[in-house]
Amino acid sequence: MIPGMNPLPLPLDGITVVAVEQAVAAPFATRQLADLGARVIKVERIDGGDFARGYDTAAGGLASHFVWCNRGKESIALDLKDPRGVDVVHQLIADADVFVQNLAHGAAARLGLDAATLCAAHPRLVAVDISGYGPSGPYADKRAYDMLVQCEAGLVSVTGTPEQPVKAGIPAADIAAAMYAFSGVLAALVRRGATGRGGPVEVSMLDALAEWMGHPLHHAMHGGTPPARTGLAHAVIAPYDAYATADGGQVLLSVQNDREWRRLAEQVLKQPELGTDPDFATNAARVARRERTDALVGEALGGLGADEAVVRLERAGVACARLRDVQQVAEHPQLAARDRWREVGTPVGPLRALLPPITLPGGGETRMGDVPALGEHTVALLRAVGMADVEIAALRRDGVVA
Q1: Which residue from 56, 117, 129, 317 has the highest number of Cβ atoms inside 10 Å of its Cβ?
Q2: Residue-by-residue DSSP string for 313-343
Q3: H, E, C per residue of 130-192
């Protein structure tokens, strides 16, 4: 807080978002909006809801993807194959600022829920279409799942070892599309503030991940060859890799320039002559002799415990890190010291969750609402659009809502 000043509201307080969403790309985008204060109404299928609810049961009986991507939302369960269910969505959109959807190609248009149709009817609405490959072109109708898009965007080709390409261990294509949808909504809301008009926003997973491939793309397009797969090593810098320590750990280090190499040679390798040896004195020389360079570093760190190795590297001014597994990240001392963990409510009780990375000093803490049960808010939302209880009961009886 800034002394003497009242706290600022969350930046999206008063903004209402309606989302017909599933899996990761759209839900992760709208969760960012919810964290910043927006009211997010999540429209789900009546027969099980967002299919990410069934991915696993690792989060106390709930799906880990769903818990991660859906806190702070209200859930309404509707049958969009029934015109009455679609009509409810349109009634919700009439009072909304933002609409987000990532249905299969063509499905939103058939329901009148595509961005172009909605923005023509509601000029102030910001409407987001998230797709796999975009609304046109030969790939428009292809199914697009994260691993498939990682392959099409070339990410898999530059990830892994020289012998084996591998996909990223997180849904990189989904996350990339989500973050561009999130920033696209914010940009469109700023423009609406100036012009009074919302408008469509289009994001495709392929476009998003291809943008993130900027370095290898430019390397290949303008340099003639793509960067090699090098595991944890860097393709054009040495030493820059993970090295085993005496206690079974692994420490990564990165020498960015020849001054750092001289410090490493003197203070960690205990071989100061390597700092000026023509075979190792420059990065180009070290890359050309990568195996010998790595052997020298590996021998020195292999006689140290991981903690001692990190201390020596830091004293020498050499960038380094521990290779942590996921459970160790959950107990990371830096996250704990900065108080980055909170608890969020879920249908199975409170679960730990990280504060979102955007911090806004001077205002209230980011909102981290509960993870909703399927259809938890159906009745309240139907009443909010003016529906009488007898009408709600009829829709429930007919299987249109749940």
Answers
A1: 129
A2: HHHTT-EEEE---HHHHHT-HHHHHTT-EEE
A3: EECCCCCCCCCCCCCCHHHHHHHCCCHHHCECCCCECCCCCCHHHHHHHHHHHHHHHHHHHHH
Catalytic residue chosen out of the listed positions 90, 234, 332, 377: 234
- Which H or E element spans position 389? helix 389-397
Structure tokens at 22: 């599933």
Which residue type occupies 386? G
Q: What are phi and psi of 297, to 5 degrees?
A: -70, -45
**44, 15 contact by CB (below 8 A):** no
The answer to whether residues 38 and 99 touch, using CB atoms and an 8 Å cutoff, is no
Give the SS3 label for residue 29. Answer: helix
Measured CA to CA in angstroms, residue 351 lies from 202, 229, 311, 370 at distances of 33, 38, 34, 10
Helix axes 205-212, 172-195, angle to 10 degrees: 100
pTM score, whole prediction: 0.93
pLDDT of res. 2: 57
Q: Specify the residue for token string 């943008």.
A: 211
Backbone angles phi, psi at 44, to 5 degrees: -125, 160
Strand, coil or helix: 309 = helix
Residue type, 2: I
Mention every residue, 6+ apart, whose C-beta is less than 8 A from residue 209.
149, 150, 153, 155, 172, 173, 176, 177
> Which tokens hold the place of 131?
């797709």
- Positive or negative, the CA dihedral 124, 110, 175, 338 is positive
What is the DSSP pairing of strand 250-254 with strand 240-244?
antiparallel
pLDDT in tens, 60-109: 999 999 999 999 999 999 999 999 999 999 999 999 999 999 999 999 99
Residues 6, 35: Cα–Cα separation, whole Å:
20
Can you name the residues that pair with 344 across neighbouring β-strands? 351
Dist CA 269 CA 281 (whole Å) = 14
